[in-house]
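Quick start: what a row looks like.
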Amino acid sequence: MTNLSVNVNKLATLRNSRGGNAPDVTAMARKILAYGAHGITVHPRPDGRHIRTTDVYSLKELMDAWRPTRPDSEHTAEHTAEHTAEYNAEYNIEGYPSEEFLRMLEDVRPDQATLVPDPPEALTSNAGWSLVRSEALLAPVLRRLRQAGIRVSLFVDPRAFTAEEKSALLKLKPDRIELYTEEFARAYGTGRREDVTEVYRSVALFALDNGIAVNAGHDLSQENLGYLVDRIPWIQEVSIGHALICEALEQGLQTTIGNYLKILRDANSHPARP
C-alpha cells in the first residue's frame, strides 16, 4: 500500500499566528501517527515561519520513541482496530540543501530527506529541480547524506522531464524522486486529466525501470488522490499537508486520516503493477 506521510507545517503556522504552543505540533503528530498515518513530514525554512528547528528535534524524539511502542489499554480510544499505526513510521524532512540544512540532517538522521530547489523566501514549493543545471550541486549532497544513512528523494516536475533531465537523473541516482503534483491537481476534473496523468505515469515508470522509487506530493486531496494512485500504483509515499488539515477542520482529524488510508487501500487493491 502507498504510505501516507502527513505534513504538519500548517499546524505550526496556526501555532505561530498567536504565539504560545497551541496547537502543540508534536502532540498532534503523535495523534496523527496513532490514527494510522505512516509518517510525518516537515519543511523547516530559515525564517521559522512555521516549523522551527526546535520542532524538528522534538519530532525526532517522538519518532524515535514511537517506533518500538505498541498500543496499551490506556490508549484504546486512539488505537482502535481501524486506526492502528504501522509502527515503522518514517520521518521525512524537506528543504533546500544549504550547509545549515545539511548539518541539521546529519544530526537528526531522519529516514528520508526530500531535497527541493526553493529559495528561502518561497511561500511554498513551486518547482522541481532542473537536474541538468543542479547536478554539480546535488551530486556531493547525495553522497554526503548517504554516508549519514539517510534516504534521499529529489523533488521533480514531470512536465519538465526532458531526455537531458533523465540522463542527469541517472547520473545522480537518488533513492527516490517526488513527483511535484500541482499540475496534476489543476488538471484533475478537466479534460486534461488523462493526458497530464500520463506524463506523470511515464516519468514514474522511467524512474522505476532504473531502480529509483517514486513518491508524490503537492495539492493532493481526498478528491484527487485515488485517481493518481490508481493510475500510478507503485507510488511508495504521498506527502499531504494543506488539504488534509483543511479537510480535518470539517471532518475531524481521525476521520480525515482514516479516509485517506481507505483511499490508498482501495486504489492499491486492484491495478496491476509493472
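That is the whole record. Confidence is low (pLDDT under 50) at residues 70-86. The radius of gyration is 18 Å.
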